[in-house]
């Protein structure tokens, strides 16, 4: 029987810390501000944006939403980002991805000022993470690390396997585990001996995007299993990349879906926005 690491609990603690720090900042006349840009009417993006706005209100931040029509041009979007880059009341800028196909995501990410890039997707922030000298960490991998710490798990010297190599989850996740002295292997769609590699892991992170992909025979007895996936199963029910029912009896710690990594992402976004407000006001 594994210990369930509750993202609900840990994220509530992170948010409470951010809220307390925000109250302190307000006594200095500073209220952190987050601008959220959404282009088009993707229903999942709408839910994410609403949750981000609500989280801002809960911790005492100001949030501004810029809901742009799907036919917005690249020039219009870049002009808005330029305005927000210069707006002192806005400390963090987030452009909800994916963007409609005619827009260039890379150019949009590059246009956000690195000091306001609270998603930590800008190449300059990605580079800083690589060398371990960063302001912000990407929210989802940072949330996974927070869960690992909350459970008192020491990464140092452990064999860590990350399944997935995306820029927003897999790659930075591997880097954060490496920063904590894990021995890290990144697996992906072309990995040949996936089962063998996964079942050697003391810490296994699944960021694949395939429902219940990780089965019991891919997990070592006593492993720590962190499930980043958000998928729907054959009955339309929310599930992770890990087959929880099969894997839980074998693991020592495991995160559930929902209620695991998911709630951490927004909590870490709040933490990054607070940090951005502090940096921009010369408070460290
Ligand atoms: P992605 O599609 O960009 O990347 C998936 C990765 O999985 C790829 O690198 C690919 O090489 C690897 N992969 C695919 N099939 C594989 C296979 N058969 N064997 C081994 N590796 C394989 O996805 P992403 O953006 O990294 O997201 C991954 C999952 O995490 C998705 O379910 C997504 O919804 C979820 N996610 C959750 C949060 C959160 O807040 N909890 C945030 C971001 C993403």
Describe the fold and architecture.
This protein is an alpha/beta fold and 284 residues long. Helix content is 41%, strand content 15%. The protein is built from 10 helices and 11 strands. The chain has helices spanning 7-27, 43-59, 74-86, 105-111, 123-131, 139-150, 170-179, 194-198, 244-247, 262-280, and strands at residues 3-4, 33-39, 62-68, 92-95, 159-163, 183-187, 203-206, 224-227, 231-232, 238-239, 253-254. The strands form 3 sheets. The protein has a 6-stranded parallel sheet. Strands 3-2-4 form a 3-stranded parallel sheet, with helices on both faces. The longest helix has 21 residues, at 7-27. It is globular. The protein binds nicotinamide-adenine-dinucleotide. Nicotinamide-adenine-dinucleotide is lined by residues 140, 163-166, 168-170, 187-189, 191, 194, 207-210, 228-231, 261-262, 265.
Characterize this entry briefly.
This protein is an alpha/beta fold. The protein has helices at residues 7-27, 43-59, 74-86, 105-111, 123-131, 139-150, 170-179, 194-198, 244-247, 262-280, and strands at residues 3-4, 33-39, 62-68, 92-95, 159-163, 183-187, 203-206, 224-227, 231-232, 238-239, 253-254.
């Amino acid at each position: 029987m594994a210990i369930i690491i509750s993202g609900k609990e840990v994220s509530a603690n992170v948010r409470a810390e951010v809220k307390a720090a925000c109250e302190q900042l307000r006594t200095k006349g500073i209220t952190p501000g987050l601008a959220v840009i959404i282009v088009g009417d993707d229903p999942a993006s709408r839910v994410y944006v609403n949750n981000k706005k609500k989280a801002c209100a809960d911790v005492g931040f100001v949030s501004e939403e810029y809901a742009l029509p799907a036919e917005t041009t690249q020039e219009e979007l870049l002009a808005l980002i330029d305005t927000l880059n210069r707006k002192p009341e806005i400390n963090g800028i987030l452009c909800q991805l994916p963007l409609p196909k005619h827009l260039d995501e890379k150019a949009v990410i590059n246009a956000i000022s690195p000091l306001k890039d609270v998603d930590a997707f800008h190449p300059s922030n990605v580079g800083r993470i690589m060398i371990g000298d960063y302001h912000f960490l990407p929210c989802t991998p940072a949330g996974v690390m927070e869960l690992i710490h909350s459970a008192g798990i020491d990464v140092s010297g452990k064999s860590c396997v990350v399944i997935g190599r995306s820029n927003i989850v897999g790659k930075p996740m591997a880097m954060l585990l490496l920063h904590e002295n894990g021995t890290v292997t990144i697996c992906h769609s072309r990995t040949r001996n996936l089962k063998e590699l996964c079942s050697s892991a003391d810490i296994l992170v699944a960021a694949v995007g395939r429902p219940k992909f990780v089965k019991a025979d891919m997990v070592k007895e006593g492993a720590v299993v962190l499930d980043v996936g958000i998928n729907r199963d054959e009955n339309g029910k929310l599930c992770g990349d890990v087959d929880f029912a099969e894997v839980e009896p074998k693991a020592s710690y495991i995160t559930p879906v929902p209620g695991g990594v998911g709630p951490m992402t927004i909590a870490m976004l709040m933490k990054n926005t607070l940090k951005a407000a502090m940096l921009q006001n010369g408070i460290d």
